[in-house]
Design a protein that fits this description.
The complex is a heterodimer. Chain A is mainly α. Chain A folds into 2 domains: 304 residues, no CATH class; 154 residues, Alpha-Beta Plaits (2-Layer Sandwich), CATH 3.30.70. Chain A is built from 22 helices and 10 strands. Chain B is α/β, with parallel strands linked by helices. Helices cover 34% and strands 21% of the residues of chain B. Chain B has 10 helices and 12 strands. In chain B, strand 5 and strand 6 form a beta hairpin. In chain B, helix 2 packs parallel to helix 3 and helix 3 runs parallel beside helix 5. About 8% of the residues of chain B have low confidence. Classes of the chains: A mainly alpha, B alpha/beta.
């Protein structure tokens, strides 16, 4: 096929996928039913793969669809479905507007060692150590973090500006939402990657996808044997080089009339660029020239050695156990474990499956889910945890459990969620207002949905909180509501395994009410 | 003009201007509350919330005594929790709807409903049934989720809560109707009319950490007071309040209390729950600060049984 239609089809899908995927993250009004989230994110390669490994099912087989798609069409996933790939095309276009040089790509040699090195390290580290390399490099998750931490606040700002005007006009269909942000340190990784991806795409097209992205490299391996690919018709080609200049992936060697299909992302720009109509997309016709390739054994063994070394470093970085903060003075909250999200089943399960795409962080209506910095160990950076200083878990809400694309959070029915113990509240009497000020407070007990935190007699007419561990679900309402600073008088210590809390016992209230008592 | 004279005159002018501005601000609600038609309080028992309100408000001459044509009315229910109406943690949606209808019948231009909720506000508004009920009556449901909706005000007579951030609707409206639900409360012992004001301010933590009872009472000194307090005592949470754990916490009292005096209405509400009002500090403090009377004997109460 030589038609420019291919490019238009690619752009159509790219626009649909980027809009839908971004909307899932930005949907601050929760317009989209949670079940649609799964459909929209179904084809995201890495999340789907992780979900499938956890729980093999058709619902998690999106990655297989992509594998087949790649085998048939090459890396079209990278151009039309991968959100990070699509925004890089936008970045690259922007680059072209800034400087002419940035829109003339030309052939570039592949960074073979780096790309396969990263792929192999990622796989090895993931198998032996943990998921953090995937978290760091999965393009969908990187995109998720960009959207959550940079784009959504901008959209909220815009919403608030419009809502402000409408509200003044007595219209409340739009409302203002406070932009709360996350802790500064959590911005480091998204910012670094944003700068990296932005710079590479602005100047060099798809250099990131073809050098760093492990998903791109993996699909590139498959696309080496794909059925359909870009072909150069030698009889028509004048070696003018226009195709190479137009190639964002820098994968067309027009002198040799050769295309590095492992790097070709199927954008079809070369087809439109070729004036001789010598470039077409179709069945692979075979390579016409021998490339005289001889493997370099020295280089190979060096690469393998390097990989193992890095894998070792990666493993060391993980840390064997979830960290125990240093014991401090009596009034500091000493959390032995961070609190992990409902649906995680255990901290370990969660950490091994979550790629830190931040979708749950974005979707949580109570702003309780925040990226961790060191709470899970440095390797767990950006993986979400419950931050009860910033919010608490809404008793009846299960949104986060329903939308997780990697299966790090498994769906929980509302009734089950209400009995899932994420942790247990711990009371620090020395910090409590009732103890220090000798005045009533009770904010903790007020917010407690199970009355695991109950006010009991203290001194004189005062009441003070008391925790019943087995009915506490660790929702953090008490910790959030507690007004003491900087340390709370009540806090939730995480459970490593989420267990079932006991259902609170109830007894029918009785009071004779057949007449007014006044 | 000598410098000293200038300063004296200038200061005097400034004080005059400031006072004029302050009085001007107050004029909206400074008008004395009209007495109930012969009664200081109406207590109704035995009907649906809607029917009890119809009867109760009729017995004091209709809501038209408090709401005039063209006015902006705010109804402040308790929508604190993401629970369904049968749990008794929020004001009965049917009652909110009926009050809004009466407001419009009295000629209100707009009726607004809002609360600063504890649980996620979108879910609270929706699952409490109040959003739908209010909209069905033609009222506007207004968010209270963002600090930007609140404005700082001073509370001159207060002992501790000398200033607070209050929802702008309370500042902008002509009439303000307080519609709490009667509940047990783990720390304040009971919540009804006076304590419902914790939902019109932004920073509740300050109240909790600075003598809760005094702060609750202090807010009764704020110049904008509800014209009427309508206490929903239909399903009354007797324990595990204010959120409640199960419907076992409730006793169906099928009652409604209406009074412009919130100290009196809270005193009566406490008795409904078989509590001694003398032991609920904020009621006692508010009474002592002159916000109303705890002496129900001195009041002309109309008791209606349906």
């Amino acid at each position: 096929m030589r038609s420019g239609l291919l490019k238009r089809i690619r752009i159509f899908f790219a626009v649909v996928f980027i809009m839908a995927t971004a909307f899932v993250f930005i949907d601050f009004r929760d317009i989209l039913p949670d079940s649609y989230t799964g459909t929209i994110l179904y084809l995201q390669f890495v999340p789907s793969l992780i979900k499938y490994i956890t729980l093999p099912s058709v619902a998690a087989a999106g990655f297989a669809v992509i594998l087949i798609l790649t085998l048939l069409t090459g890396r079209t996933y990278c151009s039309a479905i991968c959100p990070l790939g699509i925004i890089q095309d936008a970045g690259s276009r922007l680059g072209g507007l800034i400087r002419r040089r940035f829109r003339r790509f030309g052939y570039g040699k592949p960074y073979t060692i780096i790309r396969y090195g990263i792929l192999v390290i990622t796989i090895l580290v993931t198998i032996t150590g943990g998921i953090y390399m995937v978290s760091l490099l999965d393009p969908y998750s990187i995109f998720g973090r960009f959207t959550t931490y940079f784009l959504k606040p901008v959209v909220l700002l815009l919403n608030n500006a419009i809502a402000g005007i409408l509200n003044r006009g007595d219209i409340y269909s739009l409302y203002r939402i406070d932009i709360k942000g996350v802790t500064i340190a959590a911005y480091i990784i998204p910012v670094v990657f944003f700068l990296l991806v932005a710079a590479m795409s602005v100047m060099k097209g798809r250099l990131y996808c073809n050098t760093i992205c492990p998903a791109g490299t993996l699909l590139g391996l498959i696309s080496k044997v794909s059925v359909l690919r870009i072909n150069i018709d030698h009889s028509g080609c004048t070696r003018c080089g226009r195709c190479a200049l137009a190639c964002k992936a820098s994968c067309i060697d027009f002198h040799g009339r050769d295309i590095d299909n492992s790097r070709c992302v199927g954008c079809f720009n070369c087809i439109t660029a070729c004036r001789e109509k010598a470039i077409s997309y179709g069945l692979y016709r075979g390579r016409l020239q021998s490339d005289g390739y001889v493997p370099d054994e020295g280089k190979r063994s060096f690469t393998v050695g390097l990989l193992f070394l890095l894998a070792g470093i990666g493993d060391a970085a993980r840390g064997r156990d979830v960290p125990v903060p240093k014991k401090q003075s009596t009034v500091r909250e000493k959390k032995n474990l961070p609190v992990c999200l409902p649906g995680a089943t255990s901290i370990e399960n969660f950490l091994s499956r979550c790629t830190a795409c931040s979708l749950c962080i974005s979707a949580c209506p109570k702003n309780v889910i925040h990226p961790s910095i060191a709470e899970y160990g440095i390797a767990g950076i950006m993986q979400p945890r419950m931050d009860y200083h910033r919010g608490f878990c809404n008793f009846e809400c299960t949104i986060c459990t329903e939308i997780c694309p990697t299966g790090a959070l498994m769906p929980l029915a509302t009734e089950a969620k209400k009995l899932t113990q994420l942790g247990v509240a711990r009371f620090i009497k020395e910090n409590c207002i009732v103890h220090t000020e000798k005045t009533d407070c009770g904010a903790c007990s007020e917010h407690c949905p199970t009355k695991a935190v109950e006010m009991v007699h203290y001194e004189a007419n005062l009441v003070i909180p008391e925790v019943t561990d087995d009915i506490c679900i660790g929702c953090g309402a008490c910790e959030y509501a507690c007004p003491t600073t900087p340390y709370k008088a009540i806090f939730v210590d995480g459970n490593s395994e989420h267990i079932s809390a006991k259902k609170p016992e109830t007894e029918k209230a009785v009071l004779k009410t057949d007449d007014f008592p006044f | 003009m000598k410098r000293r004279v200038f300063i004296k005159k200038g200061t005097a002018a400034g004080i005059a201007a400031g006072a004029a501005m302050a009085l001007g601000n107050r004029s909206g609600l400074a008008a004395p509350v009209p007495p109930l038609a012969g009664y200081d309080m109406v207590a109704v028992m035995g009907g649906s919330p809607e029917a009890m309100f119809d009867l109760g408000i009729q017995s004091i001459g209709g809501l038209g005594r408090y709401v005039s044509k063209g006015q902006k009315v705010v109804i402040k229910p308790n929508i604190g929790w993401d629970v369904t109406p049968d749990k008794g943690a929020n004001t009965h949606p049917g009652l909110v709807k009926r009050i809004a209808e009466h407001c419009f019948r009295a000629g209100a231009k707009e009726v607004y409903v809002f609360d600063n909720t504890c649980d996620d506000w979108v879910r609270c508004y929706s699952n409490s049934g109040i959003e739908r009920a209010a909209k069905e009556a033609g009222a506007k449901i207004v968010p209270g989720n963002s600090e930007s909706y609140y404005q700082n005000v001073t509370i001159p007579g207060a002992r501790i809560l000398k200033s607070a951030k209050v929802h702008q609707l309370i500042l902008d409206c002509d009439v303000f109707i307080n519609v709490p639900v009667l509940k047990h409360h783990s720390s304040a012992k009971m919540t009804a009319a006076i304590k419902n004001m914790m939902g019109v301010v932004w920073d509740r933590r300050f109240w909790h950490s600075n003598n809760l009872h005094q702060c609750i009472a202090d807010f009764t000194m704020y110049e904008r007071k509800p014209a009427l307090n309508i206490v929903d005592c239909y399903n009354v949470m007797l324990k595990n309040g204010p959120r409640g754990v199960s419907v076992d916490d409730l006793v169906q009292m099928k009652s409604l209390l209406i009074s412009p005096d919130w100290v009196a209405v809270d005193t009566a509400a406490a008795k409904m729950m078989n509590l001694n009002p003398e032991q609920i500090d904020y009621i006692k403090i508010a009474s002592r600060m002159g916000a109303g009377t705890m002496n129900l004997e001195s009041m002309n109460i109309h008791r209606i049984k349906m």
